[in-house]
Every structure is written in C-alpha cells, then in structure tokens.
Write a structure and sequence with these properties.
This protein has 115 residues and is α+β, with helices and mostly antiparallel strands. The protein folds into 2 domains: 1-45; 56-115, Alpha-Beta Plaits, CATH 3.30.70. 60% of the residues lie in helices and 13% in strands. It is built from 6 helices and 2 strands. It has a two-stranded antiparallel ribbon with strand order 1-2. Strand 1 and strand 2 (76-82) form a beta hairpin.
C-alpha cells in the first residue's frame, strides 16, 4: 500500500472495517499497520470506546485481539490472548470489562436457553 497520505490511509481503514467488514487481522495484512494503530484510527470515530480502551492497562498485556463479524446479523466472535491469567483478570476488572463482560455472559446464557 504505497502512495496514500495519512488521511487517505485512515479513510481506507475505516472503509475496510465498516463497509467491507474486514477483521483487524485482514486490515493489518492489507495496510501493514499494527492493531493498535488501526484501533487508534477507528477510535476517532468512536470516542466513548477510545476512552475505555485508554483507561485499560490490560491492553498492554494483550498479545492478540481480533473481532470477527459474521455474515449473519448480530453474530460476532471475539478472540483475545493475554500474557498470563492475571492479565486476563485485570482486563475483566477494567472499567470496560466490568461493563461488558456481564453483558456478554448474560447474552450467552440467554442464547444457550434458546437452543
């Protein structure tokens, strides 16, 4: 990916993620940028998410994170790998972890009752 200025690169990443439904891993391969740089660009559009990620020390202990969006509506797969079990626990205790993890568990429990 050569010849794009910073603004064009940011617009391209936003298009890849929101319009073409590419995963972070796919975007990483296309634009040859780190997931943190890609996340920073996307966070400009989602300021509330940016403030949560900045407040989380657990991100520093995260080796890998990816979000996969299914072709089926409202279906996602979140994958993460942390340096150790303590790093995962810290993530779960972070501000956004306290908010999102119970909601995710509630959705999973509800879905398992439907099946």
């Amino acid at each position: 990916m050569q010849g794009l200025n910073r603004k064009e690169t940011e617009d391209y990443i936003i298009d890849l993620f929101y319009n073409q439904n590419k995963t972070f891993r796919e975007i990483q391969k296309i634009v040859r940028m780190s997931p943190l740089d890609i996340r920073a660009i996307l966070d400009k559009l989602e300021p509330e998410r940016a403030s949560l990620s900045e407040s989380s020390e657990a991100y520093k202990e995260c080796n890998y994170y990816d979000l996969y969006k299914s072709e089926r509506p409202r279906s996602y797969l979140v994958m993460g790998q942390y340096k150790n079990r303590n790093a995962l626990r810290q993530h779960q205790k972070s501000e956004h972890g306290k908010y999102y993890f119970p909601k995710i568990r509630e959705l999973l429990e509800y879905r398992s009752k439907l099946i």
